[in-house]
Amino acid sequence: MSQVRDRKRAVAQLVAAVTPALPVLIVSVVVLVDVACGAGTLWLPLLAAGPALAATTGGPRGVLCVGLLAAVLGATLGTRDGVPGHELTAVLSALAAVTLASGHASALRGRRERVLAAVRSVAEAAQHALLKPVPATVGPFQVAVRYSAAAAEARIGGDLYALVPTPYGVRLIVGDVRGKGLPAVGTAALVVGVFREAAYDEPDLLAVVGRIERSLARNLGADDFVTAVVAGYPQAGHLEVVNCGHAPPLLVRESGTVVPVEPAHPAPPLGLRALTDETPSLQVLPFDDGDQLLLYTDGVTEARNHGREFYPLAEGLARHVSDEPAGTLTALHDELLAHVGGRLHDDAALLLLRKPAAPEAVSDAGRGSAPHSVSWPDRAPT
User: Is the separation of the CB atoms in 85 and 38 below 8 Å?
Assistant: First the structure.
């Protein structure tokens, strides 16, 4: 995969280096053909292709320079070939008109690019405010996140994630908002904001989910909802998981075995609890040194290749799992893009959590003594 990325980067750099020279190259080719054939007005009108192309690759000044070069060479070749004065005047007038129009188009393109850059910077700021960067280490865990918005230019979408250390242990959420566009982004911001507050305030993970549910019930439409997995690590060796209509997380044991964490009692997505009698349930899983947990959104598992085959996430995770979560997600993400042909058609989020061995355990194991368990405080008093 890294070799493919390197080749693509090299091709992109080559194209970026050659593109600005294309207008001058086209003018030069027209001049050489005219010199070789001596056809006069048959080839001279093609000189206008130079400034026209320059409008797509450079600014107004570059367009005018290419147009001036084409005009000087056109006048020289027309005189050399004995082109009648009125015909040469018509060719040069058309060349001047194309140059001026191309210069104006170049100025408009530059203005639109500046506006787009400003919009992208705002979107990037919004993304950092909503989906804050996750450090490589949070509490006792190694963590990695990969997020791809379907609208690459927007850099943000309806998938959400957050991970926070709290008095009750590390807590995290990964979710997917129904719908797309700005309404989905607004809902994602609401869920993340409520989660961050509730995760610090509520000692019970189900109470955190309840806070999010009540907030969504007040703010969402009748047909809107959010699927999510909320997890917490209240004490050493124990992982709590609450699944609200979301894809089951994948638990990777130290041996490399990948097991989906199916909910024991399926619950509806957040925002739909009023329509059913089902309520979320709390699952408690053993989570020991070397274990990993992958949370993701359906943009990953529903990604299809040209044969309409879904991406096999569990198999891909088993192939690429390592002791470095960042390396694992990079390999998974590269394979996912290769599977779909280079571009995702839905937002996709991946969050991988790994519990490394405690330094004391590694040190004692090296001396041949029994390893100590990781020290992690129990729930804080309420």
Answer: no
Q: How far apart, in Å, are the Cα atoms of 173 and each of 20, 93, 180?
A: 47, 65, 19
What is the pLDDT confidence band of residue 36, given thresholds at 50, 70 and 90? confident
pLDDT computed for residue 129 by the predictor = 64
Alpha-carbon distance 202 to 199, whole Å?
6
DSSP β-bridge partners for residue 281? none
pLDDT score at 3? 52
In this predicted model, which residue has the larger pLDDT, 247 or 26? 247
Tokens of 27: 């003018």
Render 71-93 in DSSP notation, one character per residue: HHHHHHHHHHHT--HHHHHHHHH
Cα distance between residue 33 and residue 35, in whole Å: 5
CA proximity to 353, closest of 216, 178, 173? 173
Are the beta carbons of 348 and 159 closer than 8 angstroms? yes
Are the beta carbons of 238 and 287 closer than 8 angstroms?
yes
- The token pair at 274 is 């009023």
| Percentage of residues of the chain with pLDDT beyond 70 | 82
Instruction: For residue 173, give the nearest of 189, 155, 154 by alpha carbon.
Output: 189
